[in-house]
Design a protein that fits this description.
The chain is globular and about 60 Å long. It starts with a helix and ends with a helix. Residues 156-180 and 275-280 have low confidence and may be disordered. The chain has twelve helices and five strands. The chain has helices at residues 2-6, 11-15, 22-31, 34-68, 75-78, 89-103, 105-108, 110-117, 119-141, 198-219, 235-257, 268-279; strands spanning 154-155, 164-165, 172-173, 181-183, 263-264. Helix 3 packs antiparallel against helix 4 (34-68), helix 4 packs across helix 6 and helix 9 (119-141) packs antiparallel against helix 10 (198-219). The protein has a three-stranded antiparallel beta sheet with strand order 1-4-5, with no helix packed on it. The protein has a two-stranded antiparallel sheet with strand order 2-3.
Length: 280
């Protein structure tokens, strides 16, 4: 950001650029060459594609793993893995399709599209805040064990998932059957090899929490005044809507079918072996 501001050039030319993209105008102002600006823009585009590929990969794997444990709607469909490529193609397709469909909002309203995109700020920082806050709490309480401590692992003897009776007694929800699996039961927190110990670590975690609250607070405010329907920041509405829908889904079905993160039984010996090496 600092580098871009130093290379900004004429602010009016950047704000009123005919390209529609201020960063391309900044490139042109810096090099005074159309081919040079195109080449620099191509680098940004390539990096964006690489970033999008990584995000899609991570999001699709998280969707698949959550669906495998019956944590999403249509879990039996989303949890499918292609037997040949060993890739969750359905989850990849759903994630990519939803991202593509969101861009269609821009056709109807650029304001609505920008508000949906702004959800990334509250979503990302909110997801960062929760583990940081929990780690701060456990730091202060002294619940984190020293590095090398062996966590407890117990088997869950359920080769297939049983049917779960609905609270009304009229319907049954049958989670997706799994191969033999185990779960980590209340695994304690154990420090890794890299950490900031003692008071400095607590200060670091506290600063991170305060900073994220600060960013989330200001990210939901309108960018200009006076506030109109076209300048209003609706990200707080979008964020609240996602939280409400997620809460409704959890109480309607998620709490009945979701059993928590599981690991394959074949992985347990590897984990125990790694833990024993760490303990030594």
């Amino acid at each position: 950001m600092t580098t871009v501001l130093f290379c900004l050039g004429d602010p009016d030319s950047v704000l009123d650029t005919n390209t529609g993209f201020p960063f391309i105008q900044i490139f042109y102002n810096s090099v005074s060459s159309v081919p040079g600006a195109v080449a620099m823009g191509a680098i940004v585009l390539t990096l964006t594609w690489a970033c999008a590929t990584g995000i899609t990969t991570a999001a699709s794997r998280m969707t698949w793993s959550f669906a495998r444990d019956n944590g999403t709607p249509f879990s039996s469909f989303l949890s499918k893995v292609d037997p040949r490529t060993r890739v969750p193609i359905v989850a990849v397709g759903v994630v990519a399709s939803l991202a593509a469909l969101l861009t269609l909002i821009y056709i109807g309203s650029s304001t609505a599209f920008n508000d949906v995109i702004s959800l990334t700020i509250t979503g990302f920082y909110g997801s960062y805040f929760l583990p940081c806050a929990l780690l701060l709490y456990h730091r202060i309480k002294g619940h984190v064990l020293p590095h090398g401590t062996a966590p407890e692992i117990r088997d869950q003897s359920s080769p297939t998932s049983p049917e779960i009776q609905d609270t009304t007694g009229k319907a049954k929800i049958k989670p997706v059957p799994f191969s033999e699996e185990v779960e980590i039961a209340q695994a304690p927190l154990v420090w890794g090899p890299w950490r900031i110990p003692g008071l400095l670590g607590i200060i670091n975690n506290a600063y991170a929490c305060i900073y994220m609250i600060f960013v989330i607070f200001w990210s939901v405010w309108p960018p200009v005044t006076p506030v109109t329907a076209s300048t209003m920041n609706y990200s707080v509405v979008v964020t609240g809507g996602v939280m409400i829908v997620s809460g409704i889904w959890y109480y309607v079905r998620g709490s009945k079918a979701y059993r928590g993160p599981l690991i394959d039984k074949d992985v347990v010996p590897v984990m125990r072996r790694d833990v024993s090496v760490m303990a030594i």
